Every structure is written in C-alpha cells, then in structure tokens.
Amino acid sequence: MNLADLSALDLSGAVGRREASCVEVMTDHLDRIDALDPVVHAVVARRPREELLAEAAAADAELAVGRPRGWLHGLPVAVKDLNDAAGLPTSRGFVADAPPATSDSLVAARLQAAGAIVVGKTNTPEFGLGSHTYNSVHGTTLNAWDQSRTAGGSSGGAAVAVALRMLPVADGSDFFGSLRNPTGWNDVYGLRPSLGRVPQVEGESWLSRGGVDGPVARTAADLAALHRTLAGPDARDPLGLGDPGAGPGRPVRVGWLGDLGGYLPMEAEVLEICHRALPSFGELGLEVVEAALPAHGRFGGPEDLWRTWLPWRHWLAGSALAPTYADPVLRARMKPEARFEVEGLLGDGDRPPLSAHEVMVASELRSDLFRAVLGLFDEVDLLVLPTAQVMPFDARLDWPREVAGVAMSSYHRWMEVSALGTLLGTPVLAMPAGFSAAGLPMGLQVIGRPRADDDLLALAAAWETVTDHHLRRPPLLGP
C-alpha cells in the first residue's frame, strides 16, 4: 500500500498508533511528487529530500518519547505561493529570484503548529490573478484529470497536488473563486470560510476584506480538520470571528440558483452535470427548489452584480499591485490582467481614475445585495450554483474569450459565478458535482447562511454518503 493514497486523518491515525512512521509517510509522498509533478507542475520551490527526511525522522523521535505536536504530526504540506513560509521564496508567480521568507504567514505557522512539515510551495498564477495557474516563474499547472486542460486557479497547485495524492491536504485562498474553481475542476473539496473566520493579520486590516484563506481536501473529514486548524481568533485581526461557526439548525431546503435566471452565460454541459447532481440532495432529505437572486434597495437583481463587483476588485487588487506597476521595468513584465486592475484604479487612456464615490456606491450595492440574500434565507437554508461557467478549458489559452456565444469583457468576467459568494462574505463550500462525458470534473458551490461554516462542513460529510466522488482516482494514478 502507498501511504500517499490514505486520507490525512487516516495517515494521522496510522502515525499516532505507530503503524506507519513519519519517514515512511514522507518518502511515499515525495516519491509521488517526483513521479507526477514533472507532468502537472503543482508543487514548486521544493526543499531537499534529505532535509525533509531528517525532519520526518525527528518527528518520529518526538512520538517515541510521547510528544505529538498535533493531528498533522509529520505529514507533508506545501504552502500556497502567495503566503510566506520561512526559508522558502514567495514568488507570487512573478519574482523569479525572490529571497527566502524570514517568517511564516499565519497559515504556515498554524499548519506547522499542528505538526506538519512544509515540503515546498504550491503553484499559483501571477499575483494570484485569474483562474488559470500559469506564470513565467514555475510554468503551468495542469488539470489532475486531463493534462491538456487548465487546473483552475489561483489555488490550482493546491487542488491538483491534493487530487493526485501528492499532498494529503493543502491550504488555498479565495478572492474571486480562487479556491472554488480549481477544487471544482479537480474533483476535491474546498471551503471559502466566512470573512474573519481565518484571521487576516498582515497588511491593511480594515477595508481589504475580500480574499480569505481556506482548506483543500479530498474528503469531508479532512476538510473539516484542516478548517479547524486554520480557523480561530487572533488578536492581530480586529475583525476576526470568535464564534464557533454553527448555524441555526439542520438545513432542510436548498435553493438552486443555476445561471441566475439566464443572466450568466454558461456552457450547457456545466448545467447538465449540476442538474444530475441535484437529486443527491433529495437522498439526504433536503428539498431542492428553484431560487432567484432578488432585488433589494439599490441592488436591482443579477444585472447589478458586475457593477457591484468590478469597482471593488479594481480598488483592492489595483491598490495591492500599484507599487509594482509604478516601476516601469516591472510594469513591462506584468501580465495584461494585472495591469488591467491597476489601470482600473488609477485610470488609463480609456478609463478615468476610480473615485472614492464609485467605491462607496459599489459598497452600498453590496450591502443591499447582502440584505436581499438575507431575505432569501428566510425561504431556503442553502443556495447552490456551479463552481464555474465553463468546463476546464485548453491549458494553452490564457482565459476564455467567449462563453456560450457571449463575449467576455475582461479576464475574469467568465468567473462571475464566483462573485456572489465573495460579495456576501458568507461561507461557501465547493464540492464535487460529477463528470462530463470526456471525464472532466465539475463542482457545486453551496452558499451558507452568514457565519454558518459548520453547516457546510456537515453537508460535505453527508454528501459523501450518497456520492462516490471522493473515491475516484485521476487516470495518472492508475487503477
């Protein structure tokens, strides 16, 4: 048996019972990475094998004297290449000669506090922009199920590494579907936690509440365990959550949002796969009903979604990238998608600078969108829609220029299905929906009530009792 094929919790149990050593676990995972990563390019900035085996041996020695550090004791992880891990470079898919980080991000620190050994980083698009993991530093991460297709992004490296059993679990992050798209396209689970559930302790603390860190896993139990490791209050986050994340009670009704009443262009196969998955909710005793995104106050319905989203995106992403853009040499190296965000903030020949008033208007629309969905939660307990508007596309493309015959106006307009969950700030589960005739995965987004993360983790566990997605193996792994 290859230990890399076990779930994280099964590995944890085997190590804790001394049925498998940390050295054996590390060896099997490194062998899997050596065999498959040259094909898919998911795990980057790897540490030397001898160092990792020495750390695994030290972890075995700790267990021998009764000093376990946590449920991830001796298990390998790789930190997404947007987060720092001390001793490893953080390239963000842009800086080829990035120096080693001198300290750990909160995510890296919490993984290691639970006993994990960091083996490297997981690949991400340049600056994490766009749901296609390619960059000039580490190359293109390819789909776990079809290596001619995109893995999604920006947590593409994490999703592929977990799907191919190169890592037992991984951290991801999500601003605009960056955790949901790649998990849906690689048949694994991901959770975009409630805003504040996983603390934000670096950078500006008050206004920049869009991106969140969250777990990626092959099984629902692993997802919940990693979520518990990453979540929890930190005094450095003034807006962090301290409550446990439980909802008002067991969900009984699911609202199917689909393509938002025809507003979102969507490939027919995406909707077909998701519709085939909906009866599984019925097997769990949940009623599925058609739902529509309502108007409320200044928010007029789905047609207002993009104008609510785009100014906020320009404001946050453009502000983060403005220092790089200010350097003419670095600006010339930035991909067009990155320049698009900065120029959306600062203006260019075709667009005036974004004003504070426009940002405020977008925030007012967002507030009314939240109130609209609160009203919807009086009628249903969960909201469901696909994780993407297209099936995994050709990895040689940068992004889909057209969806279902409709031209896309930007590099991320084809991902608009992700905007709702982000704008709401509520927890969103990405879970497997099924496969196309060509064997490509698609996922479902499940939007939970505000702060009810635990409801979604319970749903993921129940989903495994009526589906077998977590048991399927990508062709690269063999039978």
Automatic annotation (TrEMBL):
Which SUPFAM superfamilies does the annotation name?
Amidase signature (AS) enzymes (SSF75304)
Q: Which domain of life is it from?
A: Bacteria
Q: Name one GO molecular function term.
A: catalytic activity
- Report TM segments: none
Query: Which InterPro entries does the annotation name?
Result: Amidase, Amidase_dom, AS_sf
Give residue ranges for domain Amidase: 25-457
Pfam families assigned to the protein according to its UniProt record, in alphabetical order: Amidase
Q: Which PANTHER family match?
A: INDOLEACETAMIDE HYDROLASE (PTHR11895:SF76), TRANSAMIDASE (PTHR11895)
Q: What is this protein called?
A: Amidase
Source organism:
Nocardioides aurantiacus
